[in-house]
Fold:
Amino acid sequence: MAVSIDTTNVVQARDKVQNPLVALIPEGQSVWLDNLTRELVNGPELRALIEEDGLRGMTSNPTIFQKAIAAGNAYDEQLKMLVSKATNSGDSFEALEVKDVQTACDVFRPVYDALDGKDGFVSIEVSPGQARSTEGTITEARRLWHAVNRPNVMVKVPGTVEGAEAVGKLLQEGININITLLFSLENHERVMWQYIEALEARTAAGQPIERLASVASFFVSRVDTLVDKLLDDKIAAETDEAKKAALSNLKGKAAIANAQLAYGRFREIFDSERFQKLQKQGARVQRPLWASTSTKNPAYRDVMYVEELIGPDTVNTMPQATIQAFKDHGKVSRTVDTHLDAARDVMAKLKAAGIDLQAVTDQLEDEGIDGFTKSYELLLADIEKKSALVKS
Structure:
C-alpha cells in the first residue's frame, strides 16, 4: 500500500529553488539516496527528504544491507519467524531485504504515480556471486522482481559482459533494470544498446514499453582514487619539476571527465533517429545514474561529484552526508556537457602520461565485485550469528 506523502514539490519544484537539492529538478536531475535500512524506511527522515528536498529514489547493495543488519535489533523479530521455519542464511537475507525494499517502494509510490512512472524507484541487487553468470543473474533477477512485486522496483544487475547479456533478456521481459558497477565508456555503451534492442524487441512483439524503466549506474569517485594513486607514483619517480606539475594538475580530474564523456555518448545514442522512433511510441531514455559520488579525498570539494555532473535525464545517488552537504552549500548549474572538449583533453593527457584508463576501469570492476562479495559473505555470517542468538 502506498504511503501518503505530499508530492507538491515533485511537480512544482521551481517554487523551492532556494534549496539546492530541489533546484536540481528543473535542471533535469533526480537525487536518489544511496542507503536503505529498516529504521530509515519506517521512520520520518525518509519522508522528510521526499517532501522537503525532492528525493526521488533509493538504492541499496550488499554493503549497505550488511551494515544495516549488523547494527541494532531492527531485524530480530523477522529473524525469529525465519528461524522458526529453519530458513538458511541466504534465504533469510532475501526475505529481510525484500521486506525493506517493498516498504521503500510503498513510500516512494506517490512520487512514482505523480510523475507517471518517470521516477520514484527503489533498487534491489542480485547477489554478487552471480556477476559472472548470465543465467544465474537472470534467474535471481526474475525471482527478486516477482518477490518485491512493485512497479517501482528496479533490479540491480552488474554491468559485466555476462551481466550485460542478462540485462537485454530481462528488459525484454518487462523487468526494470539498474545496471551497476559501470566504469568504462565501452561497458556503458553496451548496456545502452541492450536497452534500445530490448525496446525494439518488445515493440515488434506488440508489448508495451511506456513503463519500462532502466538506469545505468556509472561509478565516479573510485576512478579518481585509483588514477590519483597512479599519478602519485609517477610524480614520485619524476625529476623534472615542470613534468611533476603537469602530472599533479591531472589529479582529481579523471573521474568527472570520464563521466562527462559517458554522458556525451548517452546524448548521441538517445538523440538518434533510432531511439526517436521508440520515443514516439512512449519509450523513455535509460538515464545515466552517477554512483559513488561521495568525495573520498578530503583535499577535494565535498560536493564536486555532484556539482560537475548536473544535466538533463540524469540521476545522482548520494549517501546522506553528501545530500546534506549539497543542501548546505551546493551550487546548481548545467555542467555535465558544457566542457566536453576539456574532458577529452584530460583523457588525452592521462594517456600521454602513461595512464591506461581501460586497465583502471577493469581493475575497478573486479574490485567492486570483490568488495560486494566480501560484504555479502559478512552479511550471511552476521545473519547466522543473529539467528543463533534469536534461537537461543
Summary: Residues 8-220+282-333+362-391 form a domain with the TIM Barrel fold (CATH 3.20.20.70). Residues 11-16 have pLDDT under 50 and may be disordered. The radius of gyration is 21 Å.
